[in-house]
Design goal:
With 347 residues, the protein is mainly α. The chain contains twelve helices and no strands.
Amino acid sequence: MILLSALLPVLLFILFLYYADSFKLIQFSTLFTCAAWGLLAAYISLLLNSWLMKHFNLMLMEYSGYSATAIEESLKKRMEYSRYIAPIIEETMKMLIFIYLISKGKIGFMVDGAIYGFCVGAFFSLFENTFYFYDPSNPNPMVWVIRGFGTSMMHGGATAVVLLYAMKSINVKQKIGPALLTGTVFAMLIHSLFNHFFLNPVLSTILIILVLPPVMILIFYSHESKLRKWLDVELSTEVVLLKMIKEGKFGETHTGQYIISLKNRFSKEVIVDMLCYIGLYTELSIKAKTVMMLKEVGLPSVKEPGIEGKLLELKALQKNIGKTGLLAISPILRMSQKDIWKLSLLQ
């Protein structure tokens, strides 16, 4: 029961965020990947921290035979390590999974990014709390209640900050590398401040409970509102564009004229592939947004026959067009992180 009280609060908060997601942006496979990485990151961090502490002679588990001065000095160094070194190692390990998720288009919005980030941090703390639970040097049951409500929330919140900052930067067309690095530095600072114990552990836990969940929920619902606006604007624009393509009037549009202006920069074959890509991408984008809208109102979406073939055709066209060609037409399709991500809903 003691261990359960340390792990349950943060898991319940993840479930709350999952079911509060009206668009059902979260995919179980990605959520499972985040949970697994959180556990693995905690294990790797434990090995690295143990090795470094042993290397710097900080693991005086048995104090008999040591002078009072040596014991005091060792405890002081261990405290400094937990404040300044451990946060760097642990937040870096947690962050690495986000490079994979973003590069594969698994995250599209701050909403799903926050949940995935919180999940990584939560399962990191789950491993950490379980490990410390079996540490005979920590027998006080109150420690586990505090760790469950305090440390777990801190790990989850700090990791969510990384993705929140990264997704914000992506949405304003900034590079992902510096954004992830800056977000990770913020997470390290939060982690380090928590480990300084400026407040009584119980007060720190109460403060985290009072501040973190409401802030996360506020961010959550704020960006759901932005998601609805994005759906409305993008969907109407794409419907008009697809209608012009099917009626053979694409050349009369500003988009069609822009493509024609590229004929001196690319071969005829690539221009044709661009036109095919724009039509197919727009069609699939509309279908993906329709799936999102059905999910929001609680209606099931039926997977269209042949959709896998169309997605494969889209990838083949991407390869034929090349990176330079895709860069040239990206202003037309506004291919941001969320636009790439939405196509995964069709799989």
